[in-house]
Fold each of these.
Amino acid sequence: MNLGADIVMAFDECPPSTAPREAVKAATERTTRWARRSREAHRRTDQWLFGIVQGGVLPDLREKSARDLVAMDFPGYAVGGLAVGEERTTREEVLDHVEPLLPRGKPRYLMGVGTPEDILEGVARGVDMFDCVLPTRNGRNGQLFTSRGRLSIRNARYRDDPRPPDPDCACYTCRTASRAYLRHLHMAGEITGATLLTIHNLAHYLDTLRRMRQSILLGRFEEFRTEMRRSLTASAGEGEGS
Ligand SMILES: [Zn+2]
């Protein structure tokens, strides 16, 4: 509250995906109590406090959590406790179950997700907001997300490759650096390498989400979804070569 963030999150407890039912139940109930106390303690009118739906991968606990939080009337809702080791299909089932329980006119935030594919599927399920370490952490580790899939700059085949990381990207890195140069920086442990790879990954994520928003405004999100899935499947690993 004191920092003046635009959106702040209520406290929550996020158990691992393998936790037994009793542990998930206790964590979910604690999260609901914390949500109530956070709601009561929150004073600012120029700041949104979101509640966080927990409940692991257990449908009845998710449902109870969502209903209790919605009754507290938050300006937005987060779905937490996913992207903690569960299968993607399980995550999508939980989202399918929770989404209709949240008010239609309020923003939904899927915490800790994810890859471009995961974000696409989240948006398809009505999610508005995400946060994730992948674009920056993977950038530091030499992995690029591109329009043609992922590309590991450590790969020896890029040693003399004069092409930009992603020929379809207009970011600073793609306009000014070759794969060979980026590989050299990365292998030499030069911090500039981490900076340039991070710039590209963030640009790629922002551009992907911009195009997703545009497709929604134009009423053609399903076509966008099909096209993006197709290009990522068709070129799985091809960011690696083409
Ligand atoms: Zn780029």
Amino acid sequence: MLYETADGLADGQRKAADLQPAGIRVEIVDATGLRSLEPNLAHDLAGAIYYLDEAQVDARAATLAMLDTAQRLGATLQAGTEVSGVWLDAGGRVVGVTTKQGDIPAGAVVCAAGVWSNDIARSAGVELPVRPRKGHILVTSRAPGLIAHPMLEGSYAASVTSAAEGIQVALVAEMTAGGTALLGSSREFVGFDRSASPAVAQAIAARALRFLPRLAQASIIRSYAGLRPWSPDHLPLIGPVASAPGFYLATGHEGAGIGLAPVTGQIIADWIVGGRVPELGDTVRPGRFAGC
Ligand SMILES: Cc1cc2nc3c(=O)[nH]c(=O)nc-3n(C[C@H](O)[C@H](O)[C@H](O)COP(=O)(O)OP(=O)(O)OC[C@H]3O[C@@H](n4cnc5c(N)ncnc54)[C@H](O)[C@@H]3O)c2cc1C
């Protein structure tokens, strides 16, 4: 986590100290230390907080691995089947889903349709506060050795929690196994528009160049945009919906849904299979929002 100023670094240090009781290991890195950790960073940065236990995951590989494991454990995958709504019994209990390929009965239905979750939830009489928050990624030409650690700037958290509707940009940079660099990040509310915008790409590139001047020698070979499922308090909605028995939500993870996928699955399993309120159940309970 990179900081441009001494004040910023001090603030980062305070935030890191708050995380210590949870067992999160950090090291404070000054400007000299940062130069030896990441020689290609701009030399005028104040320092960084090094989160030693951070790791990187390939979202597509992780998804396929989880899918494979689920199927080996007995799950059935019905790909390419669009759910048009939930199936309600006379008492208002959710007892399955309806699809163009036929109805599917179920003891419990988990709505995990990302930014499209509201389309399904509405059929259960539930109105979600989840909104699409667009984000762009730039992929550079191969730049082996550009950086050794995934990095983001200290103001990234402020861009996540910002209430602004317009574009927020904060540096995120990491390498792929293929030697290209992935650069982000942007945040904006523009409905369901997923088109890539040259202006946003330019803003991300400018921010990346400020931290990594060596990027001037690389090209952007691709850029794409996706929609994050934003929730008003920046926490996901995971768990049962009181007004629609049998209906569960697992959505609203915004920009952390890959990292939070395993714990989300654990919470849902605790509710449905374990029949108990999970440790984090109240924090992420959908009922904290009116209409859920
Ligand atoms: C630019 C960008 C960078 C990001 N970086 C990170 C990161 O570094 N770390 C991180 O953890 N997260 C990151 N995220 C966020 C992450 O991608 C999301 O939080 C996550 O994908 C949300 O998962 P989900 O399963 O809720 O929704 P999705 O991944 O959107 O999946 C929802 C699925 O439901 C399906 N679906 C929708 N409607 C229906 C229907 N009616 N019937 C059947 N299926 C349906 C969709 O086809 C889709 O497959 C990033 C997102 C963006 C856009």
